């Protein structure tokens, strides 16, 4: 099951299910898992020992990403939540979970920090040294993910 606040698949599932209360603005680099796997094989086969390679997809703002996911899923676009509000909600959820044995927090402070800090990355080294370029478009990756989530019961029918 997708882990709330921990990964992209949860973002897609929650937007499609209309259960995401909001998101924190920031920047991301999103790559299709199949492309990332193909890149890892290239790193193992052609990479230089001790070197690091960034396997990148598309640099995109969270606003653009959630809008794109919502449009493809046929769902309303969630609204941006100020970072301070997200941090306060996370702190309350965490305290409720730890002290009162309440539900697991939907998002933690680390996830908020990562989402709001931004993460545009440059994969030039992997391109030049390994010939790696992601081939799947972000739109196609989202569509493929939604098909899988729907067929496996993670996304409810509209």
Q: Any guess at the CATH architecture of the domain at 8-80 and 118-149?
A: Alpha-Beta Complex
Protein structure class: mainly alpha
Whole-angstrom Rg: 17 Å
Q: How much is the average pLDDT?
A: 89
Strand content: 5-15%
- What name is given to the CATH topology of the domain at 8-80 and 118-149? UDP-galactose 4-epimerase, domain 1
The biggest beta sheet is recorded as: 2 strands, antiparallel
Can you tell me the CATH class of the domain at 8-80 and 118-149? Alpha Beta
The shape, in one word, is globular
Unreliable sequence segments: 1-7
| CA distance, first residue to last residue | 20 Å
Give the helix tally: 7
The strand order across the widest sheet is: 1-2
Order of helices and strands: HEHEHHHHH
Helical coverage, percent range: 40-55%
State the total count of DSSP E strands: 2
CATH superfamily of the domain at 8-80 and 118-149: UDP-galactose 4-epimerase, domain 1
Topology overview:
Layout: H1 8-16, E1 27-30, H2 33-46, E2 58-61, H3 62-73, H4 83-100, H5 109-117, H6 124-130, H7 138-151
Antiparallel strand pairs: 1-2
